[in-house]
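DM from R.C. (forwarded with permission)

"hey, sorry to bug you on a friday — could you get me a structure for this? deadline for the figure draft is monday and I only need the backbone to look sensible"
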Amino acid sequence: MMPILRTYQSEEDYWRIRQFLREVSMLNDRRDFSWPLLRWDYWVWHVNMNIFHFDLCEAIHLWEADGQIAAMLNPDGRGEAFFQIHPGLRDEIPLSEMLDVAEQKLPEQKNDGGKELIVWVNAADAAMKTLLIERGYARSKYSAEHMRYRLLAAPIPDSVPPSGYAVRALGDQDELPARSWLSWRAFHPDEPDEKYQGWEWYKNVQCVPIYRRDLDIVSVAPDGELAAFCTVWFDDVTRTAVFEPVGTHPNHQKRGLGKAVMSEGLRRAQRLGATLATVSSYGQAAHALYESMGFTEFDLLEPWIREWPP
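My reply, with the result:
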């Protein structure tokens, strides 16, 4: 039976998609050829609720066969498309139809009246890249996502913070403003302070079903300021620990704090039963940090772009 297209309909689909992505992950030997569970959860609760505000019933498209999800098309940011495909049903998935829907529903409208779409595709997916080339896409100038992984049976680097710094789990709600401010400074080091929009967005992060505060790791400076962080998401079904995000305040960089919080996160995940850890990187500094923590193996997710004139 050929998969049938429909749109996202209700919260029940949210939970069915979670089950679908877990199954796909295991069938792919836990390689991120499709989004892992955490990326979907994190997108729904943080990226979309706090930033983009897509209507899920318009943005998420599902292909079903015999009542089971066979594939999903979804955005991340505006003008982006990701294809999640069940590996056992790949030969039955109409890739051309999925791309048609992406081009109709997900392009970004530009100020000049034109539009563009970036499709993210695994670098090893020759069939998808052939289709994109046939449809006028070219490799974007943007960096590929390095989807890194390491086994937790391998030794964990014993990275400790410098003297005066401590590593611990995030505190209760009273510490959320400091944690939010730390994220802002880590990821927006050159932005003026007046652009900061507050801390309540972090409540949505903590609503992710697999969020655990004991895996929300921070480093604390001698003066009590939060200096670095990594949030670890443990899925006990796939026994995978995802690191997202990881960052250090500009005033505390070059002191090994990123390694210290990641080392603690790896140890905590291992004690819970995780056997695989993953993290994504784009730039050279992140590549170097994660490689030093044992994330030397990776798959590449490439951005391909097509532009339509006004």
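R.C.: lifesaver. The first strand starts at residue 4 and ends at 7.
me: no worries. Residues 261 and 279 are 14 Å apart (CA to CA).
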